[in-house]
Give the backbone structure.
Amino acid sequence: MHIGIQEVFLIIFSTIVAVFMARRRHRPWFLGIPVQVAVISACTPADPVSTLLIAVPCCVLYTLGVLKSGMNPEAVV
């Protein structure tokens, strides 16, 4: 698949937000979100709408899974 410039900016933006949130809230598992966005960008067509339509639910499920796992969210990497 082809990754467009919009997806690159989306990955960079999600990385900046995740690093900021991980440092501010002391939850390193936030760093898994940009990885998901990068993989989803590589697997979807080169438009930001399809990337967001798949990335947002995946990131929400990832976050809920970590928080509902019963583990200490600060310890999950």
